[in-house]
Amino acid sequence: MQSALRTPALALPACLTRRPLRLRVTAWLRLGLARRRERQALAEMDLRMLRDIGIGPHDAFHEARKFWWEV
User: Fold this and answer.
1) CB atoms within 10 A of CB 7
2) Which 8-state DSSP code applies to residue 4?
3) Least packed by Cβ within 10 Å: which of 1, 5, 8, 69?
4) 3-state DSSP call for residue 12?
5) What does the DSSP 8-state code read for residue 29?
6) Residue 34 domain flag
7) Is residue 22 part of a domain?
8) Is residue 39 part of a domain?
9) Torsion angle defined by CA atoms of residues 37, 43, 47 and 50, in that order, rounded to the nearest 10 degrees
10) Among 36, 46, 27, residue whose Cα is nearest residue 70
11) 8 assigned to some structural domain
């Protein structure tokens, strides 16, 4: 029986893992900041907009409360 390979939640794409540490950290921070911006936008959406994208207000609230490093 084969076990499924799991990748860490904060894993970077393979093309970034061969780069120097400074560049990997920069890419990770940019990814986190992009998540933060998306979650802020989600928090500002009204009920009609949330329905358009198929997310309920409860789910949007919990997603918007996550820290930027959480996936």
Assistant:
1) 8
2) P
3) 1
4) coil
5) H
6) yes
7) no
8) yes
9) 40
10) 36
11) no
pLDDT at site 68: 87
CB atoms < 10 A from the CB of 24, how many?
14
Question: Would you mind telling me the total number of residues written for the chain in this entry?
Answer: 71
- Asked if pLDDT for residue 65 goes beyond 90, the answer is yes
Enclosing domain of residue 50: 28-71
Question: For the chain, what is the domain count?
Answer: 1
Q: What is the dihedral of CA 40, 45, 49, 55, to 10 degrees?
A: 60
Residue 2 DSSP code: P
The whole-angstrom separation of Cα 33 and Cα 11 is 15
39: closest CA among 10, 59, 12, 13?
Answer: 59
**Which residues touch 40 (CB under 8 Å, ≥6 apart)?**
64
Q: Which residues contact 23 (CB under 8 A, 6 or more apart)?
A: 16
